[in-house]
Amino acid sequence: MWIPTEHEKYGVVLASFRGTVQHGLPLEIGDTVQILEKCEGWYRGFILKNPNTKGIFPCSYIHLKSAHIKNKGQFETVIPTEDSVITEMTSTLRDWGAMWKQLYVKNEGDLFHRLWHVMNEILDLRRQVLVGHLTNDRMRDVKQHITARLDWGNEQLCLDLVPRREFSMVDPDEISVTELYRLMEHRHRKKDTPVPASTHHLFVNMKSLMGANLGEELEVFFHIYDGRENKPISERFFVRLNKTGVPKSPEKTERQCTLFVDLGSSDLRKDVYIVVHIVRIGRMGTGEKKSLCSVQYRRPFGCAVVSIADLLTADSKDDHLLKVYSCTTESEWHQIHENLIKKASSRYNLSGSNTGLSVALQLLHGDIDQLRREYLVLFKRGVSITRKLGFSDVIMPGELRNDLYITLERGEFEKGGKSVARNVEVTVYVLDIDGQILKSHVAAGSGEPGGDDYHSLVLYHNNTPRWAEHVKLPIPVDMFRGSHVRFEFRHCSTKDKGEKKLFGYSFVPLMQEDGRTLPDGTHELIIHKCEENANLGECSRYIKLPFSKTNLPANNQTLKSTKESFWITSFLCSTKLTQNGDMLDLLKWRAHPERINDSLSKLKEIDGSEIVKFLQDTLDTLFGILDESSKRYGLKVFDSLVHIINLLQDSKFQHFKPVMDTYIESHFAGALSYRDLIKVLKWYVDRIVEAEHQDHIQQVLKASEYIFKYIIQSRRLYSLATGGQNEDEFRICVHELFMSIRFFLSQENKPACPVTQTQAVFLRTFPAIYAELLKIFTVREVAGFVRETLASLPTTAQSECPLEAVKLQCIAKTVESQLYTNPESRCVLVPVVLRLLQAHMQEQRELVMCARILTSMLSLIKKEETGTPEPVMSEEVELIVDSLLGVLLRTILEITNRPQPAGSSLRLQFQDVTGEFVGCLLALLREMSDRHYQQLLQSFTSKEDLRDFLLQIFTVFRILIRPEMFPKDWTVMRLVTNNVIITTVLYLSDALRKNFLNDKFDYKVWDSYFYLSVIFINQPCLQLESFSPSKRKRILEKYGDMRVMMGCEIFSMWQNLGEHKLNFIPAMIGPFLEVTLVPQPDLRNVMIPIFHDMMDWEQRRSGNFKQVEAKLIDKLDSLMSEGKGDETYRELFNSILLKKIERETWRESGISLIATVTRLMERLLDYRDCMKLGEVDGKKIGCTVSLLNFYKTELNKEEMYIRYIHKLYDLHLKAQNYTEASYTLLLYDELLEWSERPLREFLNYPMQSEWQRKECLHLTIVQNFDRGKCWENGIILCRELADQYESFYDYRNLSKMRMMEASLYDKIMDQQRLEPEFFRVGFYGKKFPFFLRNKEFVCRGHDYERLEAFQQRMLNEFPYAIAMQHVNQPDQTIYQAEAQYLQIYAVTPIPESQDVLQRDGVPDNIKSFYKFNHIWRFRYDRPFHKGTKDKENEFKSLWVERTTLTLVQSLPGISRWFEVDKRELVEVSPLENAIEVIENKNLQLRTLISQCQSRQMQNVNPLTMCLNGVVDAAVNGGLARYQEAFFVKDYVMNHPEDGDKITRLRELMFEQAHILEYGLAVHEKYVPQDMRPLHKKLVDQFHLMKSSLGIQEFPAYVRASPVHFTNGSPRTCRNSVPNIISPEGGRGGVARRSPLSYPAANRYSSSSLSSQASNEVSNITGQSESSDEVFNMQPSPSTSSLSSNHSASPNVTSSAPSSARGSPQLADKHKHCRDNTCLSPRDRPVSAVFPNPLDPAQRASSHQMGDATLPRSDPNLSAPDKGSSVKNMRSQSPVLTSRSPQKNTLPPFTPSPTECPSAGLVSASPVLSGSYSSGISSLSRCSVSDASATEYGTLGADHGPASAAALALPLSMPNSASEEPVRRENKTPPPYSVYERNNPCRRPVPLPHSLSVPPAAQSSSCSSSSSQADPPALPPKPHQLRTSSMKLDSSASLSSDPRVTRPRLLPRKVSQL
Prior knowledge:
- By secondary structure, this protein is of the alpha+beta class.
- Helix content is 42%, strand content 13%.
- It is built from 62 helices and 42 strands.
- The radius of gyration is 55 Å and the shape is extended.
C-alpha cells in the first residue's frame, strides 16, 4: 500500500535506473528527485527537472537528503537544507552542462575548454565544502572562489546576474527592492569596471648575465629610480653572480627574486625606471695578468635601465633582455644611469654586442596580503622584500621600522706624496656604545644577508671619487644611542703585492645627546689621518673628536682648512625615533614649563609622521597641560587638539583614527576636560557670524566629531567618579551649545559667503555626533536635537548654493545612522526629512542624494517589517506615499525624457539616479497595502487629477518595461518589477472602470492602459518558453505566469467597454494580435476571441469588417517576420474564430476573412522558416515567390507586394541569379509609367519623379540582364530607354544607350553562354512547407550542374527528405505521409521560337538563347515494353511514354523554378520511336561532317567515334533489327495505317547509309596516319552494312539528294552584300546544285570509295592549306538539316553558271528556310564550284529565281548593311560528348543581323556574280525539341554567315495553330517576362527587334504558306514612319530596291499592374 512520506522527501540518484517495470520512472545518475509516496522498498515521485512525469523507482537507488517543505500537501515544494552555495553550485552546473555540450556543437572550442576546466574546479571545491574539514577562513576563501567562478561562467554563457550577500543568493522577496537594486548594481559594477588597485609591486627575478666572459664574479644591484626628481625611491636588491654569469646560490630563490613593494599609482610613470648597476670583483684592470696577489677589488662594470611604464604593456610571461652599457670614463660612473636616461650617448658605450642581462619583470597589483593568497607558490618558495625609501603612502599603526640609509657620495683626497692619484676604497663599520662592531648590521641591499662591513667601489687613480653607493643600516632602536658609523679609507696598490694601505678615517654618531637622531641630509665629514698600524679598535680615542666640518668650533681652523673631506647623505626611516627637537620639547613639557607656549605653537609645524609616531604621548601631554593650566593654555591646547584630529583626516594617516578611538576608550583620563572643551567650542561657534576669517573656525568644526567624543567620554568619566554630579549643568551647557549652533545655521547668506561655507563644514560632521550623544541622552532627546538643528536650516534654496548638497548629505547620513533605525526616533525625524526631500525633488535638484536618502528609508521599512508594529510601519508608508509618490513619478518621467549627457561619468551618474528612483518607486508600491491604495485614490479631489495620475503611472510603467531600463542579465530585477506592476495595475483597473466608463469615458486613459498591458505581456523576460526548464520552474513557482494574469485582465476590461470598443477598432488590432502570437496556450485562448468581438462591432458599424481584415493582414507580416507565431497558433486562430462565428449573420464573410488570414499565416510561417537558413537556396526564393504572388493576386496589397519584390531581388543577387533578379525587378518597373508624378521616399529609393525611378530601374535591370548573359532582353529595355531619351532630345544619354545596346549585340556574338539543364522536382509528403507540399516543379539548374549534382543540392536543402528511385507518379500514401519525399529527374525543354531554330544561317550564339529561354513546356521520355517482349528483337515492343509538362510561368523568370500547371501524357509507338532515333543520328552525323569539313574540330576523333558507332551498330544488327521489326509482311499487314511511316523509316535508313558513305569520304581526307587501319575497317564494315540492308544502289530520291550542311558552304564572305542577279541568270531557271552532292552514277567499291570521295571533297571545299581567312562554321542543331528531297542533276548544276543556279523545287512536306552565304572575291577560290565573279550587268533579281511558294533564305531579300565590315574568325569545335558541361569551348563571333540600313553604300561594295544556296530542307518538320537530351549534348554551336541578308528572312513558325498550346484563361499569371505582357492567353514569344521583320517582308516571302501563322511583329517606331508612300505588300519585296529602308520598330509598351 502506498503511504505518503513524512520525512523522506528529497534525494539524489546514485545509479541509473532504466524504469523497465510497469509505471517505472527512468533515472540518470545525479538526478534529484522529490518523493511523494513509499511502498515496500519502492518510492513514487518525480525528477525535479521534469515534474510532470511521475513514476516509481527503487529506494536503494536514492541517497536521501534533508530538506524544507513549503506548501505541504498537493502542491508542496522541496528546498534542500544544505548550504545555499552548494545548492546554487548544483543547479548552476546542471544548467551549464547542457550549454557546455552546445558549445562543442557550435564549434566554440576556446570557451568549451575553459568552461570544462572551471566546472571541474567548481566540483573540486564543492567536494571540499561538503567534507566540512575547512577552517572558517579557508571556508570563506573557498566560497569566494566558487562564487567568482560561478559569476564568470554565467557571464560567459550570457546567463543571469545573481544577487548575492556574503556568497549566498538573495531571495528578492526578503529584501527591499532598493536594496536588491543596490546589490545588482554593485555586482554589475564589479563585473564591468574592476576597481584599480592603489598599491602595486614589482616582481624581479634575476636569471643571468649573458655574453660576459670575464672569468670574475659579479654583483648586480637593482633599484627604482625617479627620473623626474633624480633620486632613488627604493632600497637596492643585491644579487651575486658567479664567473659564468648566473646566480651563485640558485637553490636559494630569495637571493635571486625580490618584490619591490608599496609602489603607488603615481610611481607607474614613464619617468620612473628600474636601474641596474653591475660591479665586478677582481683585478684593478680587466686586461691585467693574473698575479699571485689574492686581493680583489670592487670595480665598475656596466649599467642597464628600463622604464616601469614599458612593463604595463609588455607580456609579463616573457623575460626581458636588458642591454648593458659601460661609461667611457670611470669618473662618470656615479651618473651613468642618468646619462642613459637622458640618452647622452657620448658618455657611455655598449659593453658588448652580445652582453645582456636576462631578467623576469612583472607588475603585481593589490595589497601584500592579497598577493600572498594569489601567489602562494611564490611566497612559499621564497622571495626577498625590497622596501621603498621612507614610509609608504599609507602608514599603518603598529608598523615597526628603524632603518638608516647612508649614501657614500664623494670624497676629496690628497696625493699623499705619490706621483699619481690614489685608488681609494671606503670600508663602512657600525660600532655600538662600547666600540664593538655590530655584526650583520651593514646591508648592501635586500636579497643577501647583512654583513659586518661594506667595501666601496675602487675608482682607478681618482682623488675625487664619486661613488653614489647606498648602504642600509638596520640598527635596533635600543642600540641607537651611543652607536656611530666609521668610514675607513685605504689606498689600493696596483703593484704585485696588491696591498690596501689605511691612510685615514671618518666617523659620525647616530644620536645626539638630547635624544635627536642624526638629521637627514648631506654631511661633510672630517677625514682624520692615521696609519695602517693605528689602533682604531679603541673608539674612545677618537669619539670625542669633531666629526663634521659644519659642527667645528670657530677656533679649530686646522681641521677647517684641510682640503680632504668625505661626503655622505643620511636618511632615517623610523617609527620610534625622531630628529625633531620641538617634538621632544613638547613631550618633556614638565622639565621646561616655560617652553610650553612655544612648544604648543610649534606643534603645527611638526611633520605629521612625527606626530603619529608619538600620538598617545602627545595626547597625554595636551590633556595634562589642560588639566593643570586650563585657563592659561586652554585655547592653545584646544587648537593643538584640533590640529591633531584634522591631521588624521589626511589619507596618509587615516588608519591612525582607530588608534585615537582606542586612546579615548582606554587611555583618556581627562574627567574635567569636558567643561573646557564645551566652553571653547561654544566660544568659537558664537563668533562665527561676526568673524571675518572663517578658516580656523572651519578647522574647529571639522574636528567636532572627535571633540564631542572627548566631551562625552570626559563627562562619563566624571559621572563615574562623582556618581553623576552636575548632570543638569552639563545638559544646560549642551543645550546652550546647540542653541548657538542653530543660530549660526539659520543665517541666510550668499553662496560665496564664508559663513555659508562654515555651515557646510558643520553639516558634514554633524551626523557623526549622534552616536556620541546617544551615550548620554535618550533617543527622543537626540532626535529632538537633530530635528531642531535640521529645521533651523534656511528654507529659501538657491540652486548654485553648495549648502544644498551638503544639507542633503547630512540628511542622508542621518537616515543611515543608528539614530534613524530606532522607530521611536524615526517618527520624530521622518516629517522633516520628507519635507526637505520633497522640496529638492520638486525642483529637480541634487537628485543623486535624494535617491540615496529615499533608498535608505525604504530599505529600512522592509528590514523592520517583522519587528515593528504594523500601524507604525503603515503610517510611515502612508506619509511617504502622500509626500513623495506623485513627485517620484514626475521625477522618473523627467529624468528618462531628458537627453543623456555626453560625458561617460555624467551618463553613468544619470543611469544610477534613474535606477535608484525606479527601485524606490517599486519598493514603495510593494509596501502599499489595500488601505494605502484606497486612501491614495480617495485623495484625488477631481476626476482630472485622477486621470493625470493614472496617465502618469501608466507611462512610468511603460518606461520600466523598456529593455534598456536594466542591463540584459538583470532578470531577477525585471521579474520583481513586473510583479509590482501587475499588482498595481490590478488595483488601478478598478478605478479605471469606476471613473472612466459610460458617459465619463476617457479614450486616452483606456488607450494608455491597453498599451501598457500589451507591452507588458510581450516583454522578453516573461517569455518563459525561451528559458531553461529549471529557470522556468523557479519563475513559475515564485510568480506564476504573469502574462496570463495580464491577458485575463485585458479581456475583462475589454468586455466592460461595451459600445466604446469601436474607439479601439482598428487601433488595437495590431497590439492584441501581437499578444495572441505569444506562445502561451492559455493566453491565446483568452485573447483570440477579442477579434471576433471586433469583427462583430465593426460589422454593426460599417456593415463589413474590411478595417479589421486590412489591419490583421498588415500586422501579421511584420510580426511573423520578427519570429512570432507558429503552426499551433494558426490552427488555434482558425478553430476558435470559426467556432465563434457559427451563429453570426455575417458568417460567410467571416469565414472568408479567417480563411484568407490563415492562408497568409501559412505562407508567412513557411517564409520565416526558410529565412532562418544560412545560405540562399531555392527554398527561400520559392517561398518568397509564393508570398509575393499571394499579396498580389489574393490580397492586392501593392506596398507589401513591392516590398517582397525587393526582398526576392536581394535574394537573387546574393545567390548570383542575375537573370532572375532582373525579371523580379521588372515586376516593379511594370507598375510605373513614364510620367512626372512625384514619388515618396520608399525602401532605398529617394524622393523622385516616377520617370526618374523607372529610368533607374531600367538601368539596373539591363545591368543585371547583362551580368546574367540574357542580352536579348536587355536590348529591348535599352531601346525603350533610348526612345524616351530621344523624345526628350537627351542625345547624350541616347548616345550612351545606343552604345550599350551595341555592346550587348557584341556580347551575343562574342561571348560564350552555357546551356543549362532543367530538372523536374516533385515534393511529396505533409512535412514539406505549404508552398511545396505535394506539388511538382521544373527547375533551371546552375552552370555546369548535372543531375547528380542537382540531386545532391536538393537533398542538402532538405536534409530529412527521402529520394525516390523511380519516375512513376506516387500514390496517395506518399501524398499523405508524415515525411518528405523528393522525386527528381532531368527534362528536355521544348523551345517556343521554332522559327529561329529552324532557320539556316542563324549562328548558334543566337539560337542558343531561344533554345533555353522563355520555355513553358518540357518533355520527359520513359521507354517501356508493351505486351510481350521479343527477346530476339526488343525494338518490336519498345514504346516511349512521353510526358509534357506545362508551367505556370516560363523559365527563366522571377524564380529558378516554377510549378507545373498541366501534365500531358502520350505514348510513342516503336515505329515512331525508330524514326526519331534515326533522324537524330542522321542530324548528328551531318553536324560532325560539316564541322570536320570546315576544320572546326581540333581533331577528327568525334567523327571517327560517331561513324564507328553507327557502322558497328548497323553491322551488328542495328538497322537490320528495324527491318526485321517493321518491314516484315506481318507488320505491314497488321498495321496498314503505318504505311507512310514505314516508307519514311526506309528513306531515313537509306539516307543514313548515304550520309555514312559521304562521311567516310570526308573522314579519309582528314584521318591521321595512325588511324588509317581503323578507317579501312570502317569502310569494310560499311559495305557489310549495305549488304545487310540489301542496298545495291541508292534509290533516286537518295541519289538526287545531296548531303546538305546547315550553314552552306564552308567558306563565307567577309563583307556580305546582296547579289544582283542578271535577268539572264533568272531566266535560265536551272536548279542550283549543292556543292556537297556528287553524281549518282558513281559506284564506289571498297577500294575506290576513299580515293574518289576524297578527291571530290577537295574539289568541293576548294580550300588552300595556307589560307588563314577561311571562316569556319559550325552546324546548327536546328531541324533545318539534311533532307530527303530531290535535287537537279548534278551535271546540270555544275555546268550552269552560279548566277543562274536557283533553289530546287521542294515538296510542301519538305519546305524549309534556306540561308545563303557568299565569299568576297579575294577569299573565293577559282574552281568549278566558285567561278570568277560576273560583272554587274549579269546580275539578276532574286525574286525571279526558284519556287515562289517556298519560304527561302536569299541574300537579295534584304537591303545591304551600312557598309559595316564583319570580321570572320576561327572557332574551336567542342568535343562532342553526351551531356558535356560545356557545349562550346569557344563562342562563335558571328554578329547578329541588324536593322535595315540605307542603300547608299551598295555600289561601292564588292559583290559576287551569283548566289549560292546550301539547298538544305527540313526533316519532315521534325522539331529540334523532339531530340533527346543526349542528342542535344552532341550538337555543336552554329557559326552562321556574317551576312546582312538574314535581316529580311521570314520567321519560320509551326505548321498550324494547333501546334501552339493555349494557356487557360482563368489562370493568367502576372507578366513575369519582358516578352509576356497583357495577353489573356499565351502567344508565341516574339523575337527581339534585331531578329524580327516587318509584316510586309513576311508576307512577301511567305505568302503561299497559308498554314503558317505569321509571327507577331512589334509596332514600328513613330519617328521612323516618315513616308506614307511606303507600301509593303506581297508583290513588292524589300530587296527589289536596295535603297528602301526598313521601318524601325518600337518596343511594346510595358503594361501596368
